[in-house]
Amino acid sequence: MKNIVLFGPPGAGKGTQSAKIIEKYDYLHLSTGDLLRAEREAGTELGLKAKEFMDQGALVPDEVVIGMIANKINANRQVNGIVFDGFPRTVAQAEALDQMLTENGLEIAKMIELEVIEDELVKRLLERGKTSGRADDQNEAVIRNRFKAYENETAPVADYYKAQNKYVALPGMGEIEIIFDYICREIEAC
Ligand code: AMP
Q: Which of 37, 65, 85, 95 is least surrounded by Cβ atoms within 10 Å, i.e. has the fewest?
């Protein structure tokens, strides 16, 4: 089982590339953003709790997200691999993920970061907001908050995987297919 963390700021293309990876390799896609939005739509207690953070562009508390991911890993031990998209977003989440995987005899094979400049990210998110129905993609102040959360809380997660020699950065701008080819090379090399 090959487990990949797809990393990068909001709008870097993690969702787009995850969809291509799971189609090609038949992996499981675990996006904490998607899972949280599903909880909100279902009107669960967890979803209601997450809403106030998501609408402001802030991170949902670690224990909420970690519990949600633990359930998914436990329910999917027979898959070819997992693409983690939007998780881990804090060092505490990365540590919890390592612990969960180790308990199941598993590990992260690689973290792949998609690098995109901030002006392009804002452009992409506002464009996506026109059709995604996501309130957090439609308001520039919320988008800036999401970048702040990324810079302060999420960016240090790269160092966590660098220390384990599992980190690689790829250009996230340009043709989707070319970026995907780079990603495939990285997945197949580990
Ligand atoms: P995303 O779809 O990945 O852009 O996530 C949308 C929002 O969900 C984020 O702005 C956070 O409020 C929340 N979220 C998603 N994943 C996480 C995570 N791993 N930790 C904390 N909050 C998260």
A: 95
CATH no. for residue 142?
3.40.50.300
Range of 114's domain? 2-189
Active site residue 128: yes
Pocket of ligand 1 (CB under 6 A): 10, 32-33, 36, 53-54, 57-60, 65, 86-87, 89, 93, 136, 146
Give the residue from 57, 31, 56, 32 showing the smallest Cα distance to 46: 32
Structural domain total, the chain: 1
For residues 85 and 44, give the distance between their C-alpha atoms in angstroms, rounded to a whole number. 22
Q: What is the tens place of the pLDDT at every residue in 126-173?
A: 999 999 999 999 999 999 999 999 999 999 999 999 999 999 999 999
The rounded Å distance from CA 75 to ligand 1 centre is 21
Spatial separation of the C-alpha atoms in residues 108 and 110, rounded to whole Å: 6
